[in-house]
Design goal:
Structural class of chain B: alpha+beta
Distance between the termini of chain B: 68 Å
Strand order of the largest sheet of chain B: 1-3-4-6-5
Shape of chain A: globular
Shape of chain B: elongated
Largest sheet of chain A: none
Structural class of chain A: mainly alpha
Oligomer: heterodimer
Distance between the termini of chain A: 33 Å
Number of domains of chain A: 1
């Protein structure tokens, strides 16, 4: 008979061990080497598919290629925010120092992808819709996501002491995370200029497979890229923390 | 082992999220009409406000361009927006986006000049969620 308390203790010990900085430090360097050797091959393959092999769309023509940057960055900006919020909540409840360092490294990546999604969206919107920007539900909620990222990064950077800045960032991330399902379903709930999702979790996708291969290859490139950026930033954050002598768990 | 402090923090987070979801839900459901980027012809005709009281108010009407309805003469383009139930005749002076064509989504921004006649200041083309290579489109047409 295993009581709930033992389960929680085991889980907590596991979390502390896996996130303990000293054990993770040597792994980071190996992972950085691995990903940096991988990224150029992936990028070359991804770009070949996106720019050369992929057919143009029957009506958008070649501007469909913008989608190969736009969609992965939009997905990653949402995924990053969700993960960040989860870590902020876990850090708030269990006070796991390492999650805080992970979030310092995650937040700028999310901001980068949000900006990228909005800029490429505008570049696609001009030739397709006839306008750079429209205040429809999808675009506006995406802009709100950008503001939440900025708020979180600013509060992490400029508010002191650390405890207060973390509390503020946690608050912003929870409020901002309500926006995530709104972004996802805005195109279904309301009339928007932005088209509904072409790739669906259930039912048939309305995008031809010849567009899907380059799309998922570019997603892979973006994933490797963000992993690389994350690891580099995370390493810096660990070094910073060790220098400050604030490490409580080692 | 969950200490008392951890339990309290966990509880406060849950309560906070719970109330936040409620708050956002009520805000969105009260704003529901205003979030719509455009109105379909049926939505326009079902609201008396737009047609009777606020005739001078600018609004956006969206739907499909009816097949065979595009009519171009000296700088002016006329076409019919339909949602397959109701129709609105739109007149517009200026250039239209590349994707503007028959049986494609369109959004017109402007004012009603009378009950079925809409003067547009701006035309936006709406792209649907279908991504098809050109060769396949030809095959579909031939079928």
């Amino acid at each position: 008979m295993i009581s709930s308390h033992t389960v929680i203790t085991v889980v907590r010990n596991f979390m502390f061990n896996i996130f303990s900085t000293s054990s993770i430090f040597s792994i980071i360097n190996k992972l950085i080497k691995f990903f940096s050797s991988l990224i150029f091959i992936a990028l070359a393959v991804g770009l070949t598919f996106a720019l050369l092999i992929s057919p143009p769309d029957y009506i958008q023509k070649d501007s469909v290629r913008i989608m190969y940057v736009h969609v992965p960055s939009a997905w990653l900006s949402l995924a990053t925010f969700s993960i960040m919020t989860l870590f902020f909540i876990l850090n708030f409840v269990f006070k796991i120092k390492n999650l805080q360092l992970i979030n310092y490294s995650i937040a700028p990546i999310g901001l980068l992808f949000t900006c990228l999604a909005i800029i490429t969206g505008a570049a696609w919107g001009k030739p397709t819709w006839g306008t750079w920007w429209a205040w429809d539900a999808r675009l506006t909620s995406m802009l709100a996501l950008l503001f939440f990222y900025v708020l979180i990064i600013l509060s992490l950077k400029f508010i002191s002491p650390v405890e207060r800045s973390l509390k503020l960032a946690t608050l912003f991330s929870i409020i901002g995370s309500i926006n995530i399902p709104i972004i996802k379903y805005s195109v279904d709930w309301w009339n928007t200029l932005h088209q509904p999702a072409s790739i669906k979790f259930t039912g048939t996708s309305t995008i031809h497979s010849s567009f899907l291969v380059p799309l998922f290859l570019m997603l892979l490139v973006f994933l490797i890229f963000s992993a690389l950026i994350f690891l580099m930033k995370y390493k810096t954050e660990i070094i910073k923390m060790k220098k400050k002598g604030l490490n409580k768990y080692d | 082992m969950l200490t008392r402090k951890v339990k309290n923090r966990l509880l406060s987070i849950f309560v906070f999220i719970f109330f936040l979801i409620f708050l956002v839900y009520f805000i969105l459901s009260s704003l529901n009409k205003n979030i719509l980027y455009f109105k379909t012809p049926s939505e326009v005709f079902s609201s008396v406000d737009i047609l009777e009281k606020n005739k001078s108010q600018s609004l956006r009407v969206g739907g499909m361009v009816k097949k065979g309805s595009i009519n171009v003469d000296d700088n002016e383009i006329k076409f019919v927006i339909t949602d397959f139930k109701n129709e609105i005749l739109v007149s517009y002076k200026g250039t239209v986006p590349n994707l503007f064509s028959e049986e494609k989504g369109v959004i017109a921004e402007g004012k009603f000049s009378d009950k079925k006649f809409f003067l547009a200041d701006r035309i936006l083309a709406k792209h649907d969620e279908n991504y098809i290579p050109p060769e396949l489109k030809e095959i579909k047409k031939n079928d």
